[in-house]
Amino acid sequence: MQLGGIVDSLAALPVWQGFTLLILGGIVLAALVQFFGDRFVRRVTDHIDGQVDDIVLKGVHRALYVSIAIAGGYVGTQVYDISPSVAVPLEAGTLSLVIVVWMVTLMRVGRRASNVATDSRYIDRQVVPILQNVWSALIAGAAVFLLLVLWDVDVTPLLASAGVVGIVVGLAARDTLANFFGSLSLYLDGTYKVGDFVVLETGERGRVEDISVRSTVIRTRDDILVTVPNSKLSNAAIVNESTPKQKRRIRVPIGVAYGTDIDAVEEILLELAVAEDLVVDRPKPRVRFREFGGSSLDFELLCWVSNPAVNARTIHNLNCAIYKRFQTEGIEIPFPQRDVSVSVTDVPGELFAEARDDAFGGEVPTDGGRDER
Asked: Residue 253: beta bridge partners?
């Protein structure tokens, strides 16, 4: 084995001396890397907003230093011609130690970074622990797989068994898994959060009270709690009335009789909207003449409220104020009417006679139907 430079010098030494120098050299190199690496990490993290990068870099660099320190022992197995019965376990042992160190480090970094990256919203407190567990399970599974391969353990039977178990679990818990991934998609998309007013595809409208891994609880306007699986919500059209802002526009349709002064109607509607406390000043209320209806001139009052929770109350107040004001001003609000006229003059004589006989049992009273008893 032809080696040059320092490697030749190390190879000329006894094995125990060479291993000692390599291990000490790895420790010294790790210390140097740590000294200069810490300064580099501080400079990098100072120019990046947030704390996630700081946690990741500072969490990883320790494992890097330990790996460099351990690398001396691994290099020794490559430099010296030692017995395979000793070299193989020593090589596998050093690599196994590196794998374990990185496994623990990545688990810790993932947990700390997820805690810092998320805020204090309830959905985060529910989802983050699950994401952390999934991350830890993936890292641990990958580390165990590498350790088994490193120690020449046949993983084929384990992979086959894991595949069968995965299929069985997937079939048995498909609804649970669907809800779990549905909750993840809702969280990552930011569809809604606790406190938002939402309108579901089925028509239910209410405040989001609770978001868990399996389902979402919504309190309707009737003060009824509706629990909806997340798998259905992730595939449904949801209207979030609380985002991106709380302000919402409401529509108040009103019809007046033909011949009414439309300028006066518009002025009255705007005046009532401005006088309503639940209507915000900006944007300003407006009135639109929509169409010539079948029996009325159809207007629509458009105004904004500060919170979707007061939509119904604001519409109620405006309807009451409009009706009272129109009555005072003598403005007619038309409504559908139907006049039904019945005439027997157009009924053929034979049909009229049959109807008369049926009504009086075949006998026609001569006194005009009066009862003289």
From this structure: 300
Are 265 and 282 in contact by the 8 Å Cβ rule? The answer is no
- Number of Cβ atoms within 10 Å of the Cβ of 178: 17
Report CA 274 to chain centroid distance, whole Å: 37
Q: Are 33 and 68 in contact (CB under 8 A)?
A: yes
The residue whose two tokens read 């374990």 is 100
Beta bridge partners of 284: none
pTM score, whole prediction: 0.49
CA distance 91 to 309: 67
CB atoms within 10 A of CB 168: 10
| pLDDT attached to residue 190 | 77
DSSP string, 228-266: EEHHHHTTS--EETTSS-S-EEEEEEEEE-TT--HHHHH
Q: Is-cis flag, bond preceding 283, omega within 30?
A: yes
| Angstrom distance (rounded) from CA 44 to CA 36 | 13
Q: How far is residue 286's CA from residue 279's CA, in Å, rounded to a whole number?
A: 12
| Residue 71 tokens, joined | 């690398």
Q: How far apart are CA 243 and CA 192, in angstroms?
A: 8
Residues 6+ apart with CB under 8 A from 101: 63, 66, 67, 70
For residue 166, the model assigns a pLDDT of 72
Which two tokens mark 371? 């009862």
Low-confidence ranges of the chain (pLDDT < 50): 1-4, 120, 122-123, 368-373
* pLDDT number for residue 1: 41
What was the pLDDT predicted at 170? 66
Tell me the C-alpha to C-alpha distance, in Å, between residue 197 and each of 175, 185, 250.
26, 19, 15
Pick left, alpha or beta for residue 67 (phi over 0 → left; psi -120 to 50 → alpha; otherwise beta). alpha
Q: In what order do the strands lie in the sheet with 248-256?
A: 248-256, 297-305, 286-292
Give the residue among 356, 282, 271, 284 at the shortest CA–CA distance from 322.
271
Return the residue matching tokens 């190199």: 29
8-state DSSP, 340: -
Q: Distance between CA 324 and CA 333 in Å, rounded? A: 11
Q: Which stretch of DSSP H or E encloses residue 303? A: strand 297-305
Supply the pLDDT for residue 41.
Answer: 59
